[in-house]
Amino acid sequence: MPFFLYKSAHIPVTQYHCQGEPLPTDLEHPHQPSVSSFLVSPEMVQFTQKHILFHNTPTWGHQKPIIPFSMQILRSRPNVVISVLTCADVYSKLSAEVDKLPDELREDAKVRFHIIDISGVIFNPLPPVLEFEPTFKAIFNGETIKCLSSGKEYNLPPVTVALIDPFAGYAIEAIREISENKTPYLLWFTGTAGVGLQYFRQTPSEKLNMHTIRYGREQDIMPRLPEFLDSVTGETITCPGVATMYDYEKYPQELPIVGDMFIHLGRKYIASGQGMIIVSSSSFEREAIDATKKWFSSLGQVVYPVGPSLLPDTPSSAPLTSARCDAQVPVVEFLDRMQKKHGERSVVYMSFGTFFWPKNPEKVWAVIEELLATGTPLIWAHPSPFCVVPEDKLKLFQDSDIAFEMQWAPQKEILSHPVTGWFISHGGWNSAQEAMYYGIPQIYWPIGADQPLNAANMTLVKKAGFELIEVRTGEYGTRKMYRFKDSDPKDLPTFTVEAVRREIRELVTKLKGEEGLAVRKSFEKISREFLSGWNEGGEARESMDTFLKSKSRDASPVDGNNPRPFQNRPALLMSNSRTHGTRINNTMEHIRSQSIVNAIWHQTLPRPSIIVVLAVSWNSFESRGFGFISRIGGFGIRSTAGSTMSTSAPGKRVIVIGGGLAGASAAHTLLEHGSAVILLDKKPSLGGNSVKASSGINGAGTETQKAHGIEDSVEAFTKDTTASAGDDLARPHLIHALTSNSAPALSWLTSQFGVDLTLVTRLGGHSIPRTHRGKGGAPGWAITSALIKKLEQAENGTVMKNAKVTKILQEEGSSGRVVGVEYEVNGEKKVDHGSVVVATGGYGADFAGFLTQYKPDVVSLPTTNGDHATGDGHRLVQNLTGAKKGVLCDMDQIQVHPTGFVDPSNRDAKTKFLAAEALRGVGGLLIDRAGKRFVNELDRRDAVTTAMQQCIDDGKGPVRMVLNVQAYETLKAHCDFYISKGLMKKYPSAKEFTDDTGLSLDALNDTFTAHSGFAAGKAKDPFGKTNFDNADYNVNDTLFIAEMTPVVHYTMGGITVDGGAHVLDADGQKIPGLYAAGEVIGGVHGRNRLGGSSLLEAVVFGRLAGENAAKDS
């Protein structure tokens, strides 16, 4: 019987509760009117609680994905309660995961997400969980059930739909029998589609009998495991999107302890329900997903890909509240210590998960010993109950200062730490997803189940990992693999312990070299694509919504009853005024936002209905109610439904144009101030030029400088920036805004986003070392990607890619206030309303436009800018049609960077890779064709460019940059990337270089000798160089050399703004509602930008724009 909400009655929204806890309803919310103050007609509000039940085999890899998928459901559906019936060990682990959730989501989960231990401790996951059947029967009959771990009792509503592991056949049989096939169920599959295709389309073994499936005991099942092994014929296995292999390759180790019993259970039940929810995505395995959909469609079923299934939290933000979490402290301390001593990405993490363990551990010890022998920092976790570690092996860790051993490891804390570089794993799908989430490529040691296929796909098909081959054991594991079918016998693996040691030594070399870098780049690309599934319009989000709206056979959908016809539904006027409400079309008086939103959500209004909101406290309504309205198609903070009508909410809504660092900084600042944000970018991916910045970010008076003993000040930074800008174009108010906010900007990046900025160097034009970066790769990528990743997970933020803004809208009348934008997405025109922040970057690739118009002499030069840098934002502001129009300034000020790489394979390419100024900052030299220096490498960019251009014009080119080993090691990640692209070449000594180029070895030796003397103070450098890092150059040492050319790099001109990032009109007056940040603004740098100030400008003015736009809105 449904519940109805009346004016004078306190009636619960839900039909269940947990004994000893308050009813899970927020109708009686502090500081809000009580339920009795609302008048709602019975036909208006019907609350229908929906119940999703999960049950999986008690292995952690099958259980863990439940949490993130459930949280996505709870976020989008306030009428859903979720229960997980499991064992004691999984109960504690799932509870720990819930404790790590963000506050708001965690509190919601504690009310609507119930982890219920029904069986106590389970050691072996193979036998059926016998307690499931009576527990489900109790729920079906409306009886109370009890959690054995917590002692809490639950009265749960009837199960709307069950999501069951295909290996839990006992649960499927119980649901069918008890409900008489009335409770619908879908299969919950936590592997890849490729694995499902290769393993589960065959006929299950006839030896699977119903008694074994439902009631078998451990002593009955374990002796029979060999009976379930598939026959091995040596045939070739092929299926869509999966690496080809021989059938015996799915047994890479001695017979797995689980045998093939799980596989045969999967074959029996994988297609037995109303469909399957699979924790994978088309972005990762499109061919396999498409083939799986076709297979299920032929059976009248649907496949819902919902990968990735990873928690949207920051592990370090979770309190260390449990005994298990106490283990995180020494691990993190070890990681911090390794980072300080060995640098980023130096630690290898090794774990086979909570169940699997190689049957022959001698090869495990060999791997550990060789990693330590090569000086590779190592964390080893061994939670499997089958792992027994001898005392002498434990002593290896006790005696080493680069090794850490533990039974259970806080895996997310390890993988998210910047020092972790590689993950040795069995390759199970759960670990693979977590590795992708944190961008840590894997070294595969498959043992059984889906692992051999995952390993082969990532290493052979995607070239995004390494697989250990010599570690294989057993009859099948040591047979010739398909990948070696044409190999010379002498090149085949031998599978000995000594061969394992040799393989590890070779692997360590690969990890540190070009092959390791290439694998990491491939892995990171795959990860970025895979993790987009939960973005707005992503496959996972749409699959979830389709599943929740679907109707399984005779059951109602999770989303509830079908909506009534539109003409029978009134519009609503919603008000949280403290005086009185207004009646419109027979609606209601004095309603409160959250309760009426819940009412609407539970089918009171159809989705096309109109909702008007009058709110005294908009922030309260927005934070608690507006997200729900967006989901039923009305006004909504996150709604981006296809319509030319605005979907914006009134009030604190701001539109950011541009997805680089300036736009991301503005968006995060707006979110911090309580505003809702929609970020629009015309490209299919975010980042812009910001991700390319490779030298660092400037800051004066930072904690990093203090830690390095560097004394700096805002005044010194201001003086350097003013000198660089030139007296005639220096604008003190903008320079002060940049320099005075520099240290707080860097502190914000490190504290809020975990960006590593622990290194500092001096670039050209700076009197003091103040350019910050981390120990890894390009700082632009590190900073920008950290902000983008967090922004795409933000509750109140919407990111729309491929969205090109065509017009900025203004109010009619004299104010000229900016009120929104028009834009196009996939050819469809849309409008959104709110204040606007323009952060579209510069015009360094606009050769036919602004460059020709303002600086035609640079049009012949190549550029480092992407094709997005075409001055779009400049034109949007310049072409305002209202009472106030924006103006541009300094448009002829184009920075030509002195050092762009000349690619020997494509010398005439118009777009070049930038040779980071940091290369010169750490000691790189510039030489002409005679091997002589001709400039102070650390002079301002404009001065170095002038000297280079003169050298080339005088016929003394090409110009080359030379680095010694010390300079290379300081920027190893940069240099290895350049080498992998063929832009930089490594020479064992100067002789090989001079032989290659015809340059005089004696002349080069004279240059090196003279430079070393200048560094030692024996003479004064004729070019004025006074700072010498890594100055010891010797013709007998290894050198790293690349050819250089000047390139259009940065545009100092742009939109005129004040020191608060407000856009100004021709009279110097603010245009209300319009802000700009990043390279799109003009006047900050005058005639020349100092290296390291582009990223700083993006963050500082992005923050200023966000802060002031939040106040304005």
From TrEMBL:
<keyword id="KW-0274">FAD</keyword>
<dbReference type="InterPro" id="IPR003953">
    <property type="entry name" value="FAD-dep_OxRdtase_2_FAD-bd"/>
</dbReference>
<protein>
    <recommendedName>
        <fullName>fumarate reductase (NADH)</fullName>
        <ecNumber>1.3.1.6</ecNumber>
    </recommendedName>
</protein>
<feature type="region of interest" description="Disordered">
    <location>
        <begin position="551"/>
        <end position="570"/>
    </location>
</feature>
<feature type="domain" description="FAD-dependent oxidoreductase 2 FAD-binding">
    <location>
        <begin position="654"/>
        <end position="1095"/>
    </location>
</feature>
<dbReference type="InterPro" id="IPR027477">
    <property type="entry name" value="Succ_DH/fumarate_Rdtase_cat_sf"/>
</dbReference>
<dbReference type="InterPro" id="IPR010960">
    <property type="entry name" value="Flavocytochrome_c"/>
</dbReference>
<dbReference type="InterPro" id="IPR050315">
    <property type="entry name" value="FAD-oxidoreductase_2"/>
</dbReference>
<dbReference type="Pfam" id="PF00890">
    <property type="entry name" value="FAD_binding_2"/>
</dbReference>
<dbReference type="GO" id="GO:0010181">
    <property type="term" value="F:FMN binding"/>
</dbReference>
<dbReference type="InterPro" id="IPR002213">
    <property type="entry name" value="UDP_glucos_trans"/>
</dbReference>
<dbReference type="Pfam" id="PF00201">
    <property type="entry name" value="UDPGT"/>
</dbReference>
<dbReference type="GO" id="GO:0016156">
    <property type="term" value="F:fumarate reductase (NADH) activity"/>
</dbReference>
<keyword id="KW-0808">Transferase</keyword>
<keyword id="KW-0285">Flavoprotein</keyword>
<dbReference type="InterPro" id="IPR036188">
    <property type="entry name" value="FAD/NAD-bd_sf"/>
</dbReference>
<comment type="similarity">
    <text>Belongs to the FAD-dependent oxidoreductase 2 family. FRD/SDH subfamily.</text>
</comment>
<keyword id="KW-0560">Oxidoreductase</keyword>
<dbReference type="GO" id="GO:0008194">
    <property type="term" value="F:UDP-glycosyltransferase activity"/>
</dbReference>
